[in-house]
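anyone seen this seq b4? input:
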Amino acid sequence: MTKSEMARQLASASNASRLNALNQQIEALRQAKISSAEQLAQIIEPLAQAMATLTDETRDSLAKTSQYNQTQSEQFAKQVEETIQAWQSAAAAAERAAQRMERAGRQMEIIHYLMVMVAGVMSGLLASALWLWLAPAPVIQNTLDPKEIAQLLKPEIAAQLQRKGK
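predicted toks r here
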């Protein structure tokens, strides 16, 4: 229960008891048989004073309640404004974080493509090197046929002999 509700209940209870007293005095006034104006004035005066007091207290109570409500309203407005500012700053921070994550995602994508390319090139080089290293040495087979060699050299030898003879 808030303070304003408690004050309102206390004022209501106090007002209810005073209203009861006023009602009793008004009922007594109705039932009284008044013989003179002075007697009427004596009966009405406390009643009027009580009503004036009740009116003043009600006015004060309403003013206090109004002031309290105004204070509460200002505090609530301030809290709402602070909450809005906090949400706006949180939204801005979330936006910045999303942008950083977007950049990081693009960087990771580029890095992954580069890693795939490097892995492909390295595996190709490694496979080629291993094939060359493990490949058997070439066997060179030279067979010399003396008749063919003599046939190939015969025109050259004849040409050299003719040059010597001249």
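The radius of gyration is 59 Å. The first helix runs from residue 3 to 31. kinda curious what u guys think
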